[in-house]
């Protein structure tokens, strides 16, 4: 709204309707970094979300593996989309992730995620020339379109689970993974390593959600 108003006032000067440069009088709207808290699912909601996947079907098996990757490892939608068969080191139990800004990191492969991936790849994934792990369930078999496809899978699962968080894309499960990791005793540095953050300042937003820990730091009001 502020930008539009400034542009309009500059336009009025340009066409000669007004002479004063009023656009410079419009104050900037303050924007506070990390003002919004991340939205995440609690454990009972996460279980409910996974149960929406019908693992008797090809689509259900694929979506179940995708949701687990997002929920347990906090991967970005693009990282799930670009994950290839060559990125899975079964012998060492590791995933090679090509992250944001062409940065790579190696993550441990949890047992439940590994089982879901192995079953999907071995018994369900359509045979095709593509090396991406996740493939369309209907022919012609090709890799998923873009990152929005991953977020759509999450949104549909949320609707099926009758869950209504403020955020409904893949990032919701990334936040969920971060909070689960913190609640299990991990440090902020370890959470940042998991998520592939370049700066600890990016990870610090999660400290604002740990209400139990913050309560211990809060000083009681002094009543005179």
Question: What characteristics describe this protein?
Answer:
224 residues, mainly alpha, three-stranded antiparallel β-sheet, 10 helices, 3 strands, 5% strand
- Residue ranges: pLDDT <50 for 5 or more in a row? none
What is the typical, i.e. mean, pLDDT? 89
Q: Globular, elongated, flat, extended or rod-shaped: what is the shape?
A: globular
Binned strand content: 5-15%
N-to-C order of helices and strands: HHHHEEEHHHHHH
Rounded to the nearest angstrom, the distance between the terminal CA atoms is 46 Å
Tell me the major beta sheet: 3 strands, antiparallel
Detail the topology: elements first, then pairings.
Elements: H1 2-14, H2 43-50, H3 58-73, H4 77-82, E1 88-89, E2 94-98, E3 104-108, H5 111-124, H6 147-160, H7 170-183, H8 188-195, H9 200-203, H10 211-217
Antiparallel strand pairs: 1-2, 2-3
Helix pairs in contact: 3-5, 3-7, 7-8
Write a short abstract of this structure:
The chain is mostly helical. Helices cover 46% and strands 5% of the residues. Helix 7 (170-183) runs antiparallel to helix 8.
Q: How would you portray this structure in words?
A:
A three-stranded antiparallel sheet has the order 1-2-3, with no helix packed on it. The mean pLDDT is 89. The termini are far apart. The chain has ten helices and three strands. α3 (58-73) runs antiparallel to α5 (111-124) and α7 runs antiparallel to α8 (188-195). The longest helix is centred in the N-terminal third of the chain and has 16 residues, at 58-73. The chain has helices spanning 2-14, 43-50, 58-73, 77-82, 111-124, 147-160, 170-183, 188-195, 200-203, 211-217; strands at 88-89, 94-98, 104-108. With 224 residues, the chain is mainly alpha-helical.
């Amino acid at each position: 709204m502020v930008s539009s108003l400034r542009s309009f006032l500059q336009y009025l000067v340009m066409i000669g309707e007004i002479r004063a440069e009023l656009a410079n009088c419009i104050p900037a709207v303050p924007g506070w970094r990390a003002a919004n808290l991340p939205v995440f699912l609690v454990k009972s909601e996460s279980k409910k979300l996974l149960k929406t996947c019908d693992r008797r079907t090809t689509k259900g098996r694929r979506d179940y593996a995708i949701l687990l990757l997002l929920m347990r490892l906090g991967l970005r939608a693009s990282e799930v989309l670009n994950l290839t068969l060559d990125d899975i080191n079964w012998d060492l139990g590791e995933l090679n992730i090509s992250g944001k800004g062409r940065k790579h990191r190696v993550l441990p492969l949890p047992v439940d995620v590994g089982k879901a991936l192995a079953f999907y790849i071995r018994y369900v994934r359509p045979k095709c020339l593509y090396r991406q792990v996740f493939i369309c369930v209907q022919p012609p078999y090709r890799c998923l379109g873009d990152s929005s496809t991953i977020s759509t899978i999450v949104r549909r699962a949320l609707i099926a689970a009758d869950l209504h968080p403020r955020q409904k894309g893949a990032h919701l499960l990334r936040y969920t993974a971060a909070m689960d990791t913190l609640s299990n005793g991990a440090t902020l540095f370890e959470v940042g390593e998991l998520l592939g953050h370049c700066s600890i300042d990016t990870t610090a937003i999660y400290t604002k959600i740990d209400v139990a820990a913050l309560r211990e730091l809060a000083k009681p009001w002094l009543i005179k």
